[in-house]
Design goal:
Blueprint lengths: L9 E13 L3 E7 L1 H6 L5 E4 L9 E9 L4 E7 L2 H8 L6 E8 L11 E7 L3 H11 L8 E5 L9 E2 L13 E2 L1 H6 L3 E5 L7 E2 L2 H10 L3 H4 L2 E6 L2 H14 L3 E4 L15 E6 L2 E6 L6 E3 H4 L1
Parallel strand pairs: 7-8, 7-13, 8-11, 11-12, 13-14
Antiparallel strand pairs: 1-2, 1-6, 2-5, 3-4, 3-6, 4-5, 9-10, 14-17, 15-16
Helix pairs in contact: 5-7
Length: about 290
């Protein structure tokens, strides 16, 4: 493990507090992991042991963390035997948690219009970031989410009016609505109230409705599959706004030792190979795309 991260990543035997199942083999698991909860930041992830019979851990983004109550919440979709085993676990069972890991999102006060884009299993960090931003009234976050399978929550029409939204785009995430954070949903699966298209296309429509003064206040934060993040970087360039992206890569150790998750990043000194686990997962979009 890199010395820069010593004392910031914790190993805990976590107790499962709840596990909720949603359509399309999606689950939200809540774990009693007080050390991880106390230090987690939007964009950080946990490395979980899914079952004693499966030696390799799985890196999963943290969707929420309550430092006072000592729990973290993770949204995941079953992909492979490891997450299938994790989905079979019940409240009261225990799993090993290593975390929080990774460089989080960093928002800037001079850019209060935070545009948060989440695609599929890239939704969790955006929920986490929105929850943190709602605590500071100087920020005006807008969360846009995209999915080609049913969303892992019950969608409903929003009561919040958002200027620049296409007509009929009314579906929102109820939890964000309760927090007072505006949100809208996009899908090509014809879900009621959702924008018909990619989440980046919905973002482009909203950004296109802004004037120069408003655009100067925008910063994009995004997490999702690589094609979505590439499109997000192109969108940021088109509208000349800063953009941070959280990358997804296969990980073995997840603490910087194996260097199996490296990506090429442009730096002031030229191209360099960076580890997504500890040098990221959040990077400047202009540096990686």
């Amino acid at each position: 493990m890199s010395t820069a991260h010593r004392g910031t990543i914790f190993l805990e035997e976590a107790r499962i507090l709840s596990q909720l199942a949603y359509d399309a083999e999606q689950f939200v698991i809540r774990l009693a992991a007080p050390k991880c909860a106390a230090h987690a930041q939007p964009g950080s992830f946990a490395h979980l042991t899914c079952d004693v019979t499966i030696p390799m851990r799985r890196p999963l983004s943290i969707m929420r963390a309550d430092a006072t109550a000592g729990w973290i919440e993770i949204l995941y979709k079953i992909v492979g035997a490891g997450l299938h085993a994790l989905a079979a676990k019940k409240a009261g069972d225990r799993v090993s948690v290593l975390g929080p890991i990774g460089k989080p999102f960093t928002v800037h006060r001079q850019r209060p219009r935070a545009l948060l884009l989440g695609g599929g299993v890239g939704i969790p960090p955006m929920v986490f970031l929105a929850e943190r931003l709602k605590e500071d009234r100087s920020y005006k976050p807008l969360v846009l989410m995209g999915s080609e399978v049913p969303f892992p929550f019950r969608t409903r029409p929003s009561a919040t009016v958002i200027a620049g939204m296409p007509a009929g785009t009314l579906a929102c995430m109820p939890l964000l609505e309760e927090w007072g954070v505006p949100s809208r949903l996009a899908s090509r699966a014809d879900f009621a109230g959702c924008y018909s298209g990619f989440v980046t296309e919905l973002a482009a429509e909203w950004l296109g409705s802004l004037g120069p003064k408003e655009l100067a206040e925008v910063e994009i934060c995004a997490c999702g599959p690589t094609p979505m993040l590439r499109a997000t970087a192109q969108l940021a360039r088109k509208f000349s706004v800063p953009c941070q992206v959280s990358l997804e890569e296969f990980m073995a150790c997840a603490v910087g030792g194996c260097a199996g998750c490296t990506v090429e990043v442009r730096t002031p000194d030229g191209p360099a190979m960076k580890r997504v686990c500890v040098d990221g997962p959040v990077f400047d979009a202009y540096a990686v795309f």
